[in-house]
UniProtKB/TrEMBL annotation:
The keyword Disulfide bond does not apply. It comes from the Bacteria. The keyword Transmembrane applies. GO terms for molecular function: branched-chain amino acid transmembrane transporter activity. It is a multi-pass membrane protein. The chain crosses the membrane at residues 9-25, 31-49, 81-102, 109-127, 172-190, 257-282, 302-331. This is Branched-chain amino acid ABC transporter permease. It is found in: Cell membrane. Keywords: Cell membrane, Membrane, Transmembrane, Transmembrane helix. The lineage of its organism: Bacteria, Pseudomonadati, Pseudomonadota, Alphaproteobacteria, Minwuiales. GO terms for cellular component: plasma membrane. Pfam families: BPD_transp_2. Its main location: membrane.
């Protein structure tokens, strides 16, 4: 399956922007851009499962936690360098997703959503369990070491710009490298025979089975791949924030991923980037507007969530196919007028 020209162009434009950003920004701004990329990767994981395979999940915050705590435990308990924890977190997350996907094969639609919802609700409580608190830190969480750039990277930075890289700028560069690699792999996956099998199962499971596709294996594999992407995002989250606690992986995080996927475009790679920006910036923007309205509202409690809900309704109404779908429609209309 070849991606639409518009989406391929947006992806390459996005990659160019990712490369250029560290030149102009540093500090908290570049940290926020890194968070967008991290959320984009988590949303992409859900998009692979829901958009390209037709399985619905409300529990991807659990796999986000698996990746994050794998990185944290490897760093703090075993002294593994932060960069080396990424592939290990990916492997653990893939295994967790694949194993969860096997029994979930008996469930579809709302029943699968309910099972994944239960997983999301249970995860923070499991992380607080005293029996594993020596690994997870329990309710206190885990404080991680700062991910300083390697010496050779600093040497290159000094030679090029005359100054060493700041930690925030290096976090962004490291996150961008991982995210770009994962997006390229996702594009190749969707275009491969495996990706076409995922899509065939989504479109018509019976026809896919008739064509010789093993629905059970491919659906479980897709669950594993989806969990792997979200787990790698969780690993980057741990490295960027340098602190983990069970409250970071509540059901609200799973809803964030779902919102990002729907607003960006549920079967779109570029849409994951737009969704990542939406889930990071729109809540903050809603808080700002809510503070401005507090002087005119008698009971401002919960006003921020009201504003956020209105933004979400507006986005879904204006972009029923997500941001990518809206861009494709506009491009087609411009082409017709010409």
């Amino acid at each position: 399956m070849r991606l639409p020209l518009v989406e391929r162009s947006l992806l390459w434009f996005g990659l160019a922007v990712v490369v250029v950003l560290p030149i102009f920004y540093d500090g908290y701004t570049i940290y926020e851009f890194g968070k967008i990329l991290m959320y984009a990767l988590a949303v992409l994981g859900l998009n692979i499962l829901t958009g390209f395979n037709g399985q619905f999940s409300l529990g991807h915050s659990a796999f986000f936690a698996v990746g994050a705590y794998t990185t944290a435990i490897l760093m703090e308990q075993l002294g593994v360098p932060y960069w080396a924890t990424i592939p290990l977190a990916a492997a653990v997350s893939f295994t967790a997703g694949f194993l969860f996907g096997l029994p979930a094969l008996r469930l579809e639609g709302l029943f699968l959503a309910l099972a994944t919802f239960a997983l999301a609700i249970a995860t923070p409580q499991i992380l607080k369990y005293d029996g594993i608190s020596h690994l997870t830190g329990g309710v206190q969480g885990i404080v991680l070491a700062t991910p300083y750039p390697p010496a050779w990277v600093d040497s290159i930075a000094v030679a090029v710009s005359g100054e060493a890289l700041s930690v925030d700028r290096w976090k962004y560069i490291f996150t961008a490298i991982v995210v770009v690699i994962m997006f390229v792999l996702a594009q190749n996956l969707i275009r491969s025979r495996t990706g076409r099998a995922f899509i065939a199962i989504r479109d018509n499971p019976l026809s896919a089975k008739t064509m010789g596709i093993n629905n059970a294996i491919f659906k479980s594999a897709c669950f594993g791949v989806s969990a792997m992407y979200t787990g790698v995002a969780g690993s980057l989250f741990a490295i960027m924030d340098e602190y983990l606690a069970p409250e970071s992986f509540t059901f609200a995080e799973a809803i964030k991923f779902l919102v990002g996927g729907v607003v960006g475009g549920i079967a779109s790679l570029f849409g994951a980037v737009f969704g990542g920006a939406f889930v990071l910036y729109v809540p903050n923007f809603s808080d700002t507007i809510a503070r401005l309205l507090e002087n005119w509202i008698a009971n401002p409690q919960g006003l921020s969530w009201t504003v956020y809900g209105l933004f979400l309704i507006f986005a879904v109404y204006v972009m029923p196919m997500g941001a990518t779908g809206l861009i494709q429609i506009l491009v087609r209309k411009i082409g017709v007028r010409r």
